[in-house]
Design goal:
By secondary structure, the protein is of the alpha/beta class. The protein has 17 helices and 14 strands. A hairpin with an 8-residue loop joins strand 13 and strand 14. It is globular, with a radius of gyration of 21 Å.
Length: 451
């Protein structure tokens, strides 16, 4: 069974082709700048040179057609034709009431459009990607995988807001969270690395990227999370403000004569790290300029790290001090040792002690790493997230009639022996240029490390 996963962002298409029988990725790719004449595409596959091209991509339909033509191309492709694709999995940031992955129907698309305002930067693009893919591949199953589904386990004390109760009963105003597919993967992988049953684990998972959030996992279930009704609440992010006093918005709307729609845009697209620095949202740019003496970049790093630290403290309390591990994942979480170090400094009283050398050696998206000290009571892992693995397993199980909610379903990546073969191949190449990575890497066979 060959499964295609599509993750359509506001102007991008991430894709992954998975061979379910061999349990391996056979191609991964990315199209950036969808909607522009100079869209950029990259595709990687085992045993093939990395493919890169610039092309005119006016919409998602053209982008998805380009994905399929590249996957079936005699030179750069990995399959003979589209007929071998059994099903497609689609990511949606905000699934509202959806508690697990489901086959896409006209009713589900209508519902996702209805709640689009809950994730205005992502849901419209997610739905456009679904519709485009269904129009190109109408005769196979299309499955929606919602990032909010994981958080449906939260108790009311975590997801309710202290607002008029009628807002909840009439309009479902509550905390939904995000990044749930990533959290599901990381919770299962952390349990494997700890050698424990997933439902005996208490974790704090930090998904730190352009969009960032954190998750308190209690006995293997989502207990609390930093994002709220929409992905705006919580941590300091690339362009989102995170937590702040709502009165600021009302006062600035009055003082600067800002319309509600414009204020929403400012909070989502012109705040966060970009708002603080005035120039940058990519943390690499922030770090480089902080080292050059830019005081606002220094401030942005301190603010972001402090917000993460504050949530770690709060979530440790919510887990009643019974914490097995802290996990860092996603772009900055996987490759940002400065942010990890600053976020964890001074938390020894919680049993969290970082090994500085290991932390700065953990800078790969191809291997799991341990960055806590040997005498740390709480383990600290860096785990490259793999949402596509969740996509593939959910879609395959739905096609086979064996799928259920994660509390009743066993994923292959719950095993300590699970390997991502495409990442292993990339790691071999990466270690030639970056041998220092070995200091932190764990759970990797010696033949991959070249030992």
């Amino acid at each position: 069974m060959i499964i295609l996963s599509l993750n359509c962002g506001s102007s991008s298409i991430k894709y992954n082709l998975f061979d379910w029988d061999q349990k391996m990725n056979i191609a991964v790719g990315l199209i950036e700048r969808v909607g522009y004449q100079d869209a950029q595409m990259t595709q990687e596959a085992p045993g093939k040179e990395k493919y890169e091209v610039t092309f005119n991509c006016p919409d998602f339909k053209v982008g998805i057609e380009k994905v399929l033509s590249s996957l079936t191309d005699p030179k750069i492709g990995v399959i003979k034709d589209m007929s071998v694709i059994s099903a497609v999995g689609h990511r949606v940031v905000h699934g509202g009431k959806l508690a697990k992955s489901e086959i896409i129907t006209p009713e589900i698309i209508a519902y996702l459009k209805e709640i689009a305002q809950l994730a205005p930067l992502h849901n419209p693009a997610n739905v456009m990607g679904m519709e485009a893919a269904i129009s190109v591949m109408p005769n196979i199953k299309h499955v929606v995988i919602a990032d909010t589904a994981w958080h449906q386990a939260m108790p009311a004390s975590s997801y309710m807001y202290a607002l008029p109760y009628e807002w909840y009963t009439k309009y479902q105003m509550r905390r939904y969270g995000a990044h749930g597919t990533s959290y599901l993967y990381n919770a299962k992988r952390a349990a494997a690395l700890l050698g424990k049953n997933p439902f005996d684990c208490n974790l704090i998972i930090c998904h730190i990227g352009n969009g960032s959030s954190m998750n308190a996992v209690k006995n293997g279930l989502s207990f609390d999370t930093s994002m709220g009704l929409t992905p705006l609440e919580g941590l300091v992010m690339g362009t989102r403000c995170g937590d702040f006093d709502a009165s600021v918005a009302f006062q600035m709307m009055e003082r600067e004569n800002i319309a509600p729609a414009e204020m929403y845009k400012i909070l989502n697209k012109k705040s966060g790290v970009l708002g603080i620095t005035g120039k940058y949202q990519d943390r690499r740019d922030v770090e480089i300029n902080a080292e050059k003496g830019d005081e606002r970049c220094k401030l942005a790093i301190e603010m972001e790290a402090y917000r993460i630290k504050k949530y770690i403290g709060a979530y440790s309390a919510s887990l009643e001090g019974k914490l097995d591990a802290v996990v860092f994942t996603a772009g900055v979480g996987e490759r940002g040792p400065v942010y990890r170090q600053k976020s964890l400094e001074g938390l020894e009283y919680l049993g969290i002690k970082v090994d500085k050398e290991r932390n700065f050696a953990a800078m790969t998206r191809n291997a799991e790493s341990l960055i806590s000290a040997e005498d740390s009571k709480v383990k600290v892992f860096v785990i490259p997230t793999d949402e596509e693995a969740v996509f593939a397993e959910d879609v395959a199980a739905i096609c086979n009639g064996t799928y259920d909610i994660h509390t009743k379903f066993h994923y292959s990546f719950e095993s300590i022996k699970y390997r991502n073969k495409l990442r292993d191949e990339s790691l071999k190449k990466e270690l030639i240029k970056k041998p220092f990575l070995r200091k932190a890497i764990i759970n990797t066979p010696k033949e991959i490390l070249g030992e």
